[in-house]
Structures are given as structure tokens and as C-alpha cells.
Amino acid sequence: MIRVALPAHLRTLAGVAGMVDVEVDGVATQRSVLDALEARYPVLRGAIRDHTTQERRQFVRYFACEEDLSHEPPDLPLPDAVVNGVEPFFVVGAMSGGA
């Protein structure tokens, strides 16, 4: 079971209050976790990744074990701490702007 932490706006969209647990068949990767998340909460399809290309949306980032995984290959296995349920996989809404 993989624990996924979503930002507030995606939790509201999915109708959940806290962390989400998803079951992943095979190797736990960004792609397999997001596939499982979107299968369980279809309303999230297109909110995290593009419908067609499946690429990460511009203002969404992925973190695990205090590391930014946003630019890692989507099929790279996630850290053992995430796979074992010790650490969550974070989907974070990025911010931009300046002074």
C-alpha cells in the first residue's frame, strides 16, 4: 500500500480528507502510483497529468523522502521507504511568481 499526500485543492476535488492509500500492482513507480490514484479517483484524471501525454502538469511536483522526483523518469522505482509505507509520496502544487 502506497500512501499519497495530495494538496488541499486535489483532496477537495477527490472528496478525501487526508492521505490516500493506493494499491500498486508490480513495481511502485511514479507512473504506477498515479495510475492507481486516477483509477481510484477518476475525477483526478487530467488534474495531475495531461490527459493525452501523461506528462506532469507544469505546476505540480512530486516528492518522496525529502527529494524532488519531479524530473525523474516516471518508471523509476520509488524509494523503499515509500514502497514500505514508511514515507508518503507527495503530490505538491508548485508556486511561481516574483517580487
Could you list some keywords that capture this structure?
single chain; 99 residues; alpha+beta; Ubiquitin-like (UB roll); 5-stranded mixed beta sheet; 3 helices; 22% helix; globular
Structure characterization notes:
The chain has helices at 8-14, 30-40, 80-83, and strands at residues 2-5, 20-22, 60-64, 67-68, 89-93. Strand 3 (60-64) and strand 4 (67-68) form a beta hairpin. It has 99 residues and is an alpha+beta fold. The model has no long low-confidence stretch (mean pLDDT 93). The chain has a five-stranded mixed sheet with strand order 2-1-5-3-4, with helices on one face. 22% of the residues are buried. It is built from three helices and five strands. The longest helix is centred in the middle third of the chain and has 11 residues, at 30-40.
Topology:
Layout: E1 2-5, H1 8-14, E2 20-22, H2 30-40, E3 60-64, E4 67-68, H3 80-83, E5 89-93
Parallel strand pairs: 1-5
Antiparallel strand pairs: 1-2, 3-4, 3-5
Short description:
A 5-stranded mixed sheet has the order 2-1-5-3-4, covered by helices on one side. The chain has helices at residues 8-14, 30-40, 80-83; strands at 2-5, 20-22, 60-64, 67-68, 89-93. The chain is α+β, with helices and mostly antiparallel strands and 99 residues long.
CATH topology: Ubiquitin-like (UB roll)
* DSSP summary, beta strand count: 5
Q: What would you say the CATH architecture is?
A: Roll
Measured distance between first and last alpha carbons: 42 Å
**Helix share of residues?**
10-25%
Query: Approximately how much beta-strand content do the residues carry?
Result: 15-25%
- Counting structural domains, the number is 1
